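Ticket #4471: complex job returned nothing on first submit. Input attached below:
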Amino acid sequence: MIPYALAAGALLASLAGWPWGWLGLLAAPLWPDRKARLAFVLALGLVLLRLFLLGDPWAGEIGREVTVTGPLRNGVVYDARGPVLLEVFPRPADGWVRARGRLERPRPARNPGDFDQQVWLRGLGVGAVLRSADVLSYRSEAGARAALRRRLLAGLTPEAAGLLRALTLGERTALGDDKTAFRRAGLAHLLALSGLHVGFLVGFFLLLGLPLGRWRYLFALVLLLGYLTIVGASPSLLRATIMAGVWLVARALGKNDAPLPALLALALSAHLLLQPHAAWSLSLWLSYLAVVGLLVFVPPRRPLPPLVSWLRDSLYATLGAQLAILPLLLHFFGYLPLFSPLANLAALPLAGLLVPLGFAKAVVPGLDFLSVPINLLAGWLLTIARSFAELPSLNWGRLDASGFALYYLALLPLILWWRGLLRWETAAALWATAVLAACTPAPRPDVWFLDVGQGDAALVRLPGNVEVLVDGGHDWDAARLRRTLTALGVDDLDLVIATHPDSDHVGSLPELLTSFPTGTLVLNPQGSGDPLEIELREAAARGGVAVVEAWRGRSLTIGNARLDFVHPPPNASGDDNDRSLAFYLSVGSRRIFFAGDAPASAALAWPPRVVEVLKVSHHGAAGGTSDTLLRRLRPRHAWVSVGRGNDYGHPAASVIALLEEYGVEVHRSDLEGAWRYPLY
Amino acid sequence: MARFRLVALYAYLGLVLLLGLARLEPHLSVRFSSVLIEDVQPTVSVVGAVKNPGLYTLPPGARVADALAAAGGALPEADLDALDLAAPVGDAETLRVPAAGQEAATTLGVPPARVSVNRASAAELEKVPGIGPELARRIIIYRPYRSLDELTRVPGIGPRSLERLRPYLKP
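Support reply: We reran it on our side without changes. The output follows.
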């Protein structure tokens, strides 16, 4: 009981933070016995004290020019005052750095599915970013790590070198595109230094230290700690090292039956005491939950032939780990590789050989002959990852809190039945009820106005998995837009509307049309032979996307939505903006006017209809919104998609003033990021 | 009774499984909803040198020539060369058919008159799509221009923007 109380106290304290964490004391009476209660309070207090001592070293310096000095690791400078993320392009390799720049707070995600710098840095315990930084001096690292890397890579093929750097030193960026292959194959955990690696290494060390008798456990511990300091303490590696450390000490003391769940709980409490901020990092949750799943699902040992029992255990282990972290995977990565248990069965033995081999080659000089088997095994492992990456996966978007809760509620009765604590009928009925609750609420229609800087993009989600994308921002937004679409649960786009061929509206669409399943593309009437328009049509042809032209008087109906185009007239002349599509989108009684970049001077020709939301034309430029337009539409909300500090002077002060005069609630992408408007 | 309980459980499980699979299915396959296209019949006002000026509702996709025909055809003095008979008409537009010798002041079917970069006032230049007050002022400062190509002298006009502006301008 005591290890669990320690873990619970530490977790509660690090999640609640200073000073609110003290409220966690109210939970103390939950522990039935006095010792556990004491342990809980102790862990809570210690972690809170640690958080208090860490404080916020940069609180007074935000917004000022600051010089930081210290070792650089993965883009973070560990200055004596506190860690800072160094934002400089290109990012220098690890080493020692002195840099000057403006200190700012990390930015939150601008769109769903965006990389969230704030949360990522919070998990690393980094509270500030050095922006527009100048590197004053830089030394590439010459320490133990560089020497290890040199010895490790001697004689390896480039492919194998990339893989071994990731596998033994945790330098995942060296892997390039194969990183994605590992992720898509469900093998990404091989690349995160974790219990797997530590397990292989500890086994290898114990084998080496066999002549030392009982001292071999301490020998392995020392080597392991050396490894940890060289490659750096990522959450999963720290977790595994603490667990292995406690196990080794217990063995050295002659205690051979340390229960793994208690070890895990102890590791969590020690981990959070060392790095209280890690409770906010995704890798910590993935790491601990995977081990919990593994411990729960691997059945107790039974006398079986060794190969059968090994097969059975590894299959149950991957399945259990997978089940435990499934909602996190779907939420944060958007897909689940369906064949990952098989991929793991094939890949794990190879990784189990490669990790100690690579380690031995890196540490002991003169083992260059090992490059032959390493090249061979690495080639096999890469082939496995690449071929499994091609297999289908289950795509999903972000989950909300109830989604997470219902998933684990559905899993719990199954676990209880698996461990023999519940009859199967009861477990099945409980499971089915949770599944039923998760299935019943039908998705509700909404519009996501996305933040693509000085550009335009909006996604309309309708019931029945009908999705409409209106413009997509610049070509450099394409990858980000795809992540956002995935996060919003979009697997295919039924309709894509390219209002007019300007790069800030349709730049990303050629790539999207070829890589994202799309039903129909809507274009404005064929015009000047603009290169972007030609590119769009070619991309549509390549992607097998139907093309429809629209103009004033044309209406499209898709799902329960109706799009009434009011601009441009079929014979329109003028520049791209003058010929931009503008349309009413009606879903039930809700109506939104998407103005594209159309000029407000044409508003008299648009049939007046009261709308809920006006997508302000042309990023809020003066010619896009007029008194006449607002009098005819009477919007309640307005969305202005505009880049921060853009050179065009968008949005025009006169437009904002006019909108305020009409009592319109203005939402701006530069101020608040993406904005969701519900259509129910 | 026990058997009945088991049957009920199976039925419940089956239903839930079906429901769950129905919810999963869209995530596993790609299927597009159908798009229904409708065109309104454009209503246009035809005025000027035609037999029966008035409001006409035409079939979708109608051209200027169809609008003329709907208005009973052009009068003998109409200057049909000033019109683009093949241009499509849009809803809520006015087609003005000029008589010969009359300046074609119309909103439809006629290419806009070009603006002279050497003679036009700032206000006239600003009517050109893509030219704002600031650019109009600069165009006037850098006068004269022997050909339109010399417009690239003006800061803010590059080869690309010149090609966009060219249809609206003359030297």
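The interface with chain B takes residues 392, 394-396, 425, 428-429, 432-433, 435-436, 439, 464-466, 491-492, 494-495, 517, 519-520, 548, 551-559, 569-575, 577-578, 605, 607 of chain A (CB under 8 Å). Closing as resolved unless it happens again.
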